[in-house]
Model the fold of this input.
Amino acid sequence: MNLDRIDLNLLVYLDVLLRERNVTKAANHLGLSQPALSNGLRRLRELFDDPLLIRTSQGMVPTERAEQLRPIIRDVLTKVDKAIQPQAAFDTSTEEHFFRIMASDYAESTLFPQVLHRLRQEAPGIILDIMTPSDVSFLDVERGKVDMVINRFEGMPQSFHQINVWEDDFECLLSVNHPILANFTLDNYLQASHVWVSKTGMGVGVGMNPHDVQHLGWVDEALRALGKQRRISVFTRHYQAAMLLAEQNDLIVTVPSRAARLQENNPRVAIKTPPFKIPPLELKMAWSPLVQHNPAHRWMRRLIVEVAHSLR
Done:
């Protein structure tokens, strides 16, 4: 049967006719004239190639085919009605939900402790799988296999929804015994040894080239604009590892301020303002159009943004 022939209203008519077994009563219930419903019954008979309702001395009686159709039609109409109803709000106190979120080490260290604190209080049924950038591809996000990604991105598919989580400045971590701590000038900064830490984008990472300044990120781009270049001794993709390396007496770690402030109570590390201007880092959250209108997803995105604003 060609589905183009089916008018959903006809199924509604049949459902009411089988319940009322009277064209006049069914027409009144549907707010139709009797001729209009009689015309609808004629079309139903053509559609199903069956009389459906037969007039007898006891009134209109359903045929065997109509009796077979009754539960099917009722089920179809119930499902259609459910499909077109507005989605219910996500009930954080009772519902369970599993989120896969790709977050950079930086975002996981600075943002997610407070996100998890809020979840424990407001939505104990939520389970998080926090993945690394190397675990995820843009295709995973596009297909909805990963709910959202939070990182710094050099490029992103235009179809994705995205929002700025925050902007962050930079600060330097170095040992309290570092020889240039008392004279933290640009010249001394450039002559020291540095730890590079970053992981933008997504997908399996590749090795770094210390001479490819264009791909080294915010700090080295800012130095290149000044015609300068620092000496990088260690490359790492992990902020926690980089901040531990800051305890070495000869290394400097330049990281976003929110990451640096995690070391405020470390007596072995000092925090210094960089001796040159570095443009702010932009942390973004992105997700697929497939999950844009999902109530649980909307709630989770809103909570993350609220937490990020509270940490400003």
Remarks:
- The first helix runs from residue 8 to 20.
- Residues 215 and 221 are 8 Å apart (CA to CA).
- The domain at 3-83 is CATH 1.10.10.10 (Arc Repressor Mutant, subunit A).
